[in-house]
Write a structure and sequence with these properties.
The protein is built from 11 helices and no strands. By secondary structure, the protein is mainly α. α1 runs antiparallel to α8 and α4 crosses α6. The longest helix is centred in the N-terminal third of the chain and has 28 residues. The chain is globular.
Length: 266
């Protein structure tokens, strides 16, 4: 589930980036949130009236995280490129893994994974301060997403919590999306790319992550998320035609090896 969610997430990010020239990151995120909300609402079918405040507060917090994480990441991608943006975002899950770890083996797995993702997306001359700040913000949101998803999964059955958070997040983007799309009229292709991102980068990974976090510790999930920069590099090669050098391929091997060791230890 974690592998499938990570692969779907990065594929959706690459597809969504194709719509940036037409509707920009904010427009892509707005359409993505709306499509994801519709899909998750059909799957999760939250029973709104039965929610207690103990269930509502993590759902509302997760909705804010959804909204902030997606916009900050996509804007960082526009400034830095997919690889570096995802690498900076990965610092959030890695921080969760390191903060919650009680085993030296976990730390030994996290260190080479962190070094490898740094090699995968080392800063280029095009990097700028705003993009780096937004990438780090996305990392903070991803760490919050992991912790909140565990709470939501424990307090609400099925995918009700994720669906409710997606709907609230989509509602927050109604005024934003209306303004952006009014000033930047979308084409059918741009809407299609943004909608595909909503399914691939939101609906699919949100559900899979929720189910996975019911089965594995947060620290294990955090280290395993280092596959995301590796997938970003591979998808950049296939979808965006970005070639990789020997150092990048070696880094991918290190990431996969660290995750295999972590999984074996768990």
């Amino acid at each position: 589930m974690m592998t499938g969610g990570a692969l779907s997430n990065q594929l959706g990010a690459a597809v969504g980036a194709l719509a940036f020239p037409v509707i920009g990151p904010a427009g892509v995120v707005a359409v993505r949130q709306w499509v994801a909300a519709i899909a998750l609402l059909a799957v999760g079918r939250p029973r709104w009236r039965t929610f207690t405040w103990r269930q509502w507060w993590p759902v509302l917090s997760l909705a804010v995280v959804f909204a902030t994480m997606n916009l900050s990441l996509y804007t960082a991608v526009e400034h830095l490129g997919l690889g570096l943006a995802v690498t900076l975002e990965f610092l959030g899950p890695l921080g969760v893994a390191l903060a919650s770890s009680r085993r030296a083996a976990d730390l030994l797995c996290a260190v080479p994974a962190a070094a490898a993702v740094a090699v995968l997306a080392r800063p280029r001359p095009s990097a700028d301060g705003l993009g780096i700040a937004l990438g780090l913000l996305a990392g903070v949101c991803w760490a919050s997403y992991i912790l909140l998803n565990r709470v939501v999964g424990a307090r609400l059955p099925g995918a009700q919590g994720t669906a409710a958070a997606a709907v609230v997040s989509a509602a927050l983007y109604v005024p934003v999306g209306a303004v952006v799309l009014a000033h930047r009229p979308p084409t059918a292709a741009a809407l299609g790319h943004a909608a595909a991102a909503g399914i691939l980068s939101s609906a699919v990974p949100f559900v899979l992550d929720l189910l996975a976090l019911r089965r594995v510790p947060a620290r294990f999930f955090g280290v395993f998320m280092s596959v995301n920069p590796a997938f970003a590099a591979l998808i950049g090669l296939v979808v965006l035609h970005q070639r990789l050098g020997a150092a990048e391929w070696l880094a991918i091997a290190v990431v996969l090896g660290a995750n295999a060791a972590m999984r074996r230890g768990a």
